[in-house]
Task: inverse folding
């Protein structure tokens, strides 16, 4: 007999009754019934109830074993009595009578319980992550993650993609976030950077003659945590295709994503391929976001001209100063009490807006301050633009374009939830396409890349030479599901002359471009195919499939919100000898001295 197990803790059934078996696992829970002691033994595969009689010489030893101790049990499989069958367990019709018990690893008193549903704070859960990972929900999430990655690999391979690994130690690249830097011992004063993404390397693979590449790529960014973004590192399904158009990229990845969400989505509906495509400008106009949640049916409209020079003075004055007006429909809201409108107005003020103007169409009339200040023609235009009618309401946001889009988008989401309109049990995919190639930094006034600096501008060199940079679109796209951006992607620029011109517009001179992106630039000089790709985020995909609100719930060993690993104690101080070897000196920020208070101050 195997020294640890003949079966797993999830394997035994009625047809094993009468067999002598050996199980190993963790003591999940104990129940003392006086003359009988029940032990729920748990491993990765499941849970089996084991029982020992008080007359057994092992009874006292088993009684003293703490929860989460690892033990090996040998005994006879017996059928449970009908009144003790547990239909919630796969092994619930049998139990094992313990004849031999070996304590492989006794557990100390636990800082957090594994059995049960008691909630613990983030610090405790991350400090004792090895215990947290034993808990059923988190354990299932990590198993799901493994299965999703295996499915993605299989689907990509079947689609003709080859898996390659790209370097982890590389050069710094301007991809929108801070790099993690690694000092070089052999080259004092010089640093490697951990890759924010394998961007340049996957493009170099295309220039090297490979046709379809993918990898489950680790990426590293020194940025703050969010609910849908873990600080430090994350993983993405990174892929690239040679001689590919935007349509080719979409055609390649849509069946992969749809298939994975159908496979692991627990029966939820998935957008059929091809996924809808929404230009960036339309997304901002209609949804107030470049990652719209299409489960929300509300579609906004621009009604600026309705109010221009009109009798609603507040809006008219702001429009003269460059503001726009966005209208958000609220179906059937006319039946809502006045408190509904007051609550939304209070929410808008709490968000920093002056309020949330509205009109209510009821009983053939237009009620509210907007309704009183518009002629019939203006009200008809609002109804037509928003698709509303009697029994509905419309809310309005008036501000500068960027501010109006952002706040109206939040108001659209708020209204959807207040009215209970969000579609349930579905994954709604879409592509946002035609992103601006450049944007103006509001603080410096400089022209910068809006997304990926390696994207091909629509119109190529002619567009770069003749158009206002802020009017140029790029072959840049995002894939969005239920309001979550899963990935950015692009058809890449593959020509050195276009690369130099594109970077020059963003403030890089030719020498700097050649120096910072020499590998890619040189590859383009010797013939590079048109190519493009995308990189859906693994963590976000699993987070959505597991229906978890926080990305840390689908990562085995995440950092906390301050980018600390509480379990391993990272980041940590380094011995002075190591610093000297690397030619580094630590210079900590000076502590601010307390400001002296004037007499009588508190």
Result:
């Amino acid at each position: 007999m195997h020294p640890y197990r003949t079966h797993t803790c999830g394997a035994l059934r009625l047809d094993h009754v009468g067999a002598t078996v050996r199980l190993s696992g963790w003591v999940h829970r104990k129940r003392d019934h006086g003359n009988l002691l029940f032990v729920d033994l748990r491993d990765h595969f499941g849970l089996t109830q084991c029982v020992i009689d008080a007359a057994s010489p092992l009874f006292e030893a088993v009684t003293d074993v703490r929860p989460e101790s690892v033990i090996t049990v040998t005994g006879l499989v017996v059928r449970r009595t009908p009144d003790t069958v547990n239909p919630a367990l796969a092994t619930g019709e049998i139990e094992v009578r313990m004849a031999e018990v070996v304590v492989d690893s006794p557990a100390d008193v636990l800082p957090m319980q594994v059995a049960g549903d008691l909630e613990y704070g983030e610090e405790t859960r991350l400090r004792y992550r090895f215990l947290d990972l034993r808990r059923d929900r988190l354990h299932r999430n990590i198993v799901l993650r493994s299965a999703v990655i295996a499915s993605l690999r299989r689907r990509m391979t079947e689609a003709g993609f080859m898996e390659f690994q790209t370097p982890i130690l590389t050069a710094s690249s301007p991809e929108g976030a801070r790099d993690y830097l690694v000092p070089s011992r052999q080259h004092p004063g010089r640093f490697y950077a951990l890759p924010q993404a394998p961007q340049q390397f996957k493009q170099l693979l295309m220039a090297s003659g490979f046709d379809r590449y993918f990898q489950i790529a680790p990426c590293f960014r020194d940025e703050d945590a969010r609910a849908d973004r873990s600080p430090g590192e994350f993983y993405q399904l990174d892929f690239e295709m040679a001689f590919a158009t935007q349509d080719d990229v979409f055609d390649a990845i849509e069946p992969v994503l749809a298939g994975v969400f159908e496979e692991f989505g627990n029966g939820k509906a998935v957008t059929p391929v091809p996924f809808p495509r929404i230009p960036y400008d339309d997304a901002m106009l209609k949804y107030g976001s470049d990652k719209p949640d299409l489960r929300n049916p509300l579609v906004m409209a621009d009604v600026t001209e309705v109010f221009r020079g009109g009798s609603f003075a507040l809006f008219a004055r702001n429009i003269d100063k460059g503001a726009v007006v966005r209208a958000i429909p609220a179906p059937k809201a006319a039946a809502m009490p006045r408190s509904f409108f007051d609550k939304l107005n209070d929410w808008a003020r709490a968000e920093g807006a002056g309020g949330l103007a509205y009109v209510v169409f009821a009983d053939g009339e237009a009620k509210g301050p907007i309704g009183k200040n518009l002629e019939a023609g203006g009200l008809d235009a609002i109804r037509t633009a928003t698709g509303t009618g009697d029994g509905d309401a419309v809310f309005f946001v008036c501000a500068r374009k960027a501010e109006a889009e952002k706040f109206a988008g939040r108001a659209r989401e708020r209204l959807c939830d207040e009215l209970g309109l969000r579609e349930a049990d579905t994954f709604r995919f879409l592509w946002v396409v035609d992103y601006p190639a450049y944007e103006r930094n509001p603080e410096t006034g400089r022209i910068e890349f809006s997304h990926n600096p390696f994207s091909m501008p629509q119109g190529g060199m002619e567009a770069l030479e003749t158009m206002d940079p802020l009017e140029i679109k790029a072959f840049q796209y995002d894939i969005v599901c239920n309001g979550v951006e899963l990935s950015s992607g692009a058809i890449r620029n593959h020509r050195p002359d276009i690369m130099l011109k594109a970077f020059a517009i963003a403030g890089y001179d030719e020498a700097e471009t050649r120096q910072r992106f020499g590998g890619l630039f040189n590859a383009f000089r010797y013939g590079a195919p048109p190519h493009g790709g995308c990189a859906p985020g693994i963590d976000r995909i699993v987070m959505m499939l597991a229906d978890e609100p926080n990305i840390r719930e689908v990562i085995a060993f995440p950092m906390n919100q301050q980018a600390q690993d509480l379990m391993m104690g990272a980041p940590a101080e380094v011995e002075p000898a190591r610093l000297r070897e690397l030619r580094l000196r630590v210079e900590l920020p000076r502590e601010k001295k307390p400001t002296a208070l004037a007499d009588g101050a508190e």
In short: The first strand starts at residue 20 and ends at 32. Residues 595-602 have pLDDT under 50 and may be disordered. The chain has 19 helices and 24 strands. Residues 136-158 form the longest helix (23 residues).
